[in-house]
Amino acid sequence: MAESRTIRWSAVGTRWLGIGLASIIAVVTLGLGLSGQLTLYISPESIWFACAGAVVVLLGAIWSFTLPLGTESDHGHDHGMPSAAVTEPVEVSTASRRRTLTLVGTVSAGVVASGVVVAALVLPPASLSVELAMSRADADPTLFAGADTPTLGVADTTTFGVGEWSSVFATASRPEAYDGSPVTLVGFVTPGDADAVNLTRMIITHCVIDAQPAAVPVTMDADEYGTGQWVEVTGTVKADADGSLRVLPTSVVTIDEPGDPYEY
C-alpha cells in the first residue's frame, strides 16, 4: 500500500513538473497577450507565435487528462528480474546513491521551477529597470547599425527613434549632414556629460534577454530631471566642430512611462 502511494505521488509530481508548470506559463502568456502587456517581455512580431504555442500547450494539457497517472514512466517493456550482478552489495549501494541523487536533483529543480511560475503569477508585469540600462550602457552602439544607411548620402530620419539616432551619433561618416535635423524623441533620463544628459531607451530584438540600451546626448540641465524620469524631447540635432552630434531641445516635457517602453 505504501509503495502504491509513493508511485502515485511520484506520478503526480512528474505531471506537475511537466504539463502542470507548462500550462500555468501558457495561461500567463495568453493573459499578457490579451492585455497587451506581453510586449514587456518579447517583441510585437513574436506575440502571435508565443500565443499560438500557449494554445497548443493548453490543448496538450487537456489531452493529458485522458492518460492514467504513471503513463509517463511506462517504457513499454518489462525490465524483468535483476541480474546477479545487481544483487551484489556494492552495486546495490551504488544504485541507491544514484536514485537518491536523482530524487534530490528532481526535487530541487521542481522547487526552482515552481518558484518561477508562482512569481510569474504573483508579480505584476514590469519593464526593465533604469539600473539595468545604466549597467549595460557600454554596449556597442553598432548593435543598432542600419540607421545610417544612406539615401543620396543622408538617411531618412523622419521615423528615427532613440535607437536609430544612437547609431547615427556613433557611426555617421558625415555628421554635418544631420545638422539641423528635427527630432521628437521619448526616453528616460540617465547621467551624461557635465552640460548634458543621455536620453535612453531599451532596444529589444526578440525578447528582454537581448535588450540593450541606446542613448543620445541632450544638452540640458542634469539637475532639472531625475535619473529615470521619462521625457519627450523636441528639438534639433547639432553637429559640433569636432564631429560629435547632440540634441538641442526646444521643448522637454515630463511624461509617464509609455505602455510600450521599448523600441524594436
UniProtKB/TrEMBL annotation:
Q: Could you name the domain of life of the organism this protein comes from?
A: Bacteria
Q: Which UniProt keywords apply?
A: Membrane, Transmembrane, Transmembrane helix
Q: Which InterPro entries match?
A: DUF1980, DUF1980_C, UPF0703_membrane_permease
One Pfam short name: DUF1980_C
Using the record's annotation, list all stretches that form the DUF1980 domain.
173-264
Which residue ranges traverse the bilayer? 12-34, 46-65, 101-123
**tRNA-binding: is it a keyword of this entry?**
no
Keyword presence, Membrane = yes
Protein name as catalogued = TIGR03943 family protein
Species: Microbacterium aerolatum
Q: What is this organism's lineage?
A: Bacteria, Bacillati, Actinomycetota, Actinomycetes, Micrococcales
